[in-house]
Amino acid sequence: MTACAIETAPEGGAVRRPGFTIAADGSYAARLAGEGEARFPERWTLDGPEPYAVPLPADQPEEPGTEVLPLADGRVLIHRQAAGRHLFSLLYPTGPATGQLPLGSIEFGPERGTLTLLPPAPGGSRAYALAVGPHTTALWLVAGGAFGPEHVAEVPGRCAGGVWLDRTGRMLALDRASPDGDVVKSVAVDLERGGEVTPLLQIAERSDDRLLLADPDSGLLLIRSDAPGEDRLGWGVLGSTRPVRFPDSLRVGDCTLTPFAAQPGQVLTPESCAVAVRIDRAPTAGGPAHGSWVGVWRPSDRRLHQLAAPEGWLPGTGLWTREGVLRLPFATREVPCGVAEVCVPADGEPAAGDGAAPERVADGGPRSDAVPDAGVPALDGGRPAPPAARDSGTAPGGTAPAGPTAPAGGDSVGPDPVGPDGSLPRKPVPLQQAPLHRTSLTGRLHRIGPRATRPGPEAATPAASPARPPMRTAAPVPPAGPAATPSVPSGVPPLSVPVSAHAAAPAMVRMTVPVVVPVPGAGAAGGT
Fold first, then answer.
1. Strand ranges (DSSP E) for 95-183?
2. Which of 58, 72, 102, 225 is deepest in the core (most CB within 10 A)?
């Protein structure tokens, strides 16, 4: 299960997680429920026939800044602050009361910096915290250790973010600021080698390169960088020699796109890995905010499917099944604990209501905006229902209102070649078919249909040489046995590949991979 719930903070472009956190295996979730000063922890069970919530209140309401994180065994880690100390406990239901197991504390006052929980670690039995000081960043194991909180590593520099790169919980990616604070680069931290740090992303010398999401199965990486001249969302493959791509399909007018979940089980097929993104439109001057809605995108599908979020969606949260069904948690007064199941078009299939070919504008360029159909009845009296919701016969109240659509006059930069049947060419070729399947568990579900944006051409990229050698697929898998070899052998230079960007000259990306595992016969991932 790959789920990384992160959102853009208003300051400095850093990222943080929302208040609803899903366990690494997708079995549980936790959040602070309630309103105002009456806040209490709440655990959601997601892997049963129907989702349900269990409140875990303490003797007094929780203070602002309290964090919760679910473990795979059903217990909930809670992080509180009091008098310059960070207190950690495990909560669990005991009949009508709440059981609490104190784990210990860390003395780290606000004058020294900030301490926050990292996203759930793979395996679901451990939890880590990041303590950011003036000049260094400390990594703490706060749950799952033998003797309470344990200091794991000290990383030079001020770090933020936190994305797990493997399924064992060994390799962690952090966004580290330069000493002068002007540049941010992602680095990989090896927790089993005392916090050994290796560069992970270096697209341009003075660019801010942050890793937002990583899928260990396919190697797909979602990156935010200003190397193209402005902050853009791009993708690459861990260990690949192909360039990082910044497709126009991930650029929607004045909206901000933030990925939060990737489809698991797509082994060695990053082009087919579906990614869920949160879409936020910047409010106009003096106007109301437009809220958040959902987008689904694949590297091999040259479009962004914009979907209506369910009413009460907890923005920036969700998880995928291996079959490609997106599950979005929501909470309303009528349904305080619910999960909406989003049916997304298969890779390469047109969205409901779309034709085989994109709509063309007068100048011959493809439309990248999705305008609501005229005359379509609105679900909430103001916005039209998505096509799949209209065609599937969903009962009233079982479909969420449609979210905003991309503004007219999208990011068209020129026409695409069109085949005899009017369809766009499919450049990427999957490396292999993913053989892994698992029956998905559903709860209180609402079906939500997709609405696709029109495909837009990708930023210009350097032409690949026909004689390019096959891709080396790498994954940060720890070596077995006590006599393990270093993650990055000495003397091996980092990989240098070009980056697609709207710039006069192509930039370069440097992706240093901790462990390089050649896979015979594996081709490189193409981009769109």
1. 97-107, 114-117, 127-132, 136-143, 150-156, 159-164, 171-177
2. 225
Please say whether the beta carbons of 193 and 172 come within 8 A.
no
Q: Which residues have a Cβ under 8 Å from the Cβ of 25 and sit 6 or more positions away?
A: 1, 72, 124
Residues 43 and 54 sit within 8 Å (Cβ to Cβ): yes
User: Phi/psi of residue 398, each to 5°?
Assistant: -95, 0
- Which two three-digit tokens encode residue 352? 């409901």
**Cα atoms found within 13 Å of the Cα of residue 408, Cβ hemisphere only:** 3
Amino acid at 159: C
Residues in the chain: 528
Q: What is the DSSP string of 239-281?
A: T--SPBB--GGG--TTEEEEEEEE-TT-TT-GGG--EEEEEEE
Nearest to 400 by CA among 523, 307, 495: 307
Q: Most distant CA pair in the chain: distance in Å?
A: 71
Amino acid at 369: D
Q: Are strands 209-214 and 196-199 parallel, antiparallel or unpaired?
A: unpaired
Cβ-contact 472, 242 below 8 angstroms: no
pTM assigned to the model? 0.67
Which helix (H) or strand (E) segment holds residue 447: the answer is strand 447-448
Note whether 149 and 106 are within 8 A (CB). yes
C-alpha angle with apex 264: 261 to 270, nearest 5 degrees? 90
- Using CA atoms of 272, 277, 281, 282 in order, give the dihedral in degrees to the nearest 10: -120
**Contact call for residues 255 and 249 (beta carbons, < 8 A):** no
- Each residue's pLDDT tens digit in the chain (528 positions)? 444 434 433 333 333 445 899 999 999 999 999 988 899 999 999 998 899 999 999 989 999 889 999 999 999 999 999 988 999 999 999 988 999 999 999 999 888 889 999 999 999 999 999 999 999 999 999 999 988 899 999 999 999 999 999 999 999 999 999 998 899 999 999 999 999 999 999 999 999 999 999 999 999 999 999 999 999 999 999 988 888 999 999 999 889 999 999 999 999 899 999 999 999 987 765 555 678 999 999 999 889 999 999 999 999 999 999 989 999 999 999 999 999 998 886 665 544 433 332 322 222 333 333 333 322 223 233 333 333 333 333 333 333 333 333 333 333 333 333 344 444 333 333 333 333 333 333 335 555 544 444 444 444 444 443 444 444 444 444 544 444 444 444 443 443 333 333 333 333 344 443 434 444 444 444 443
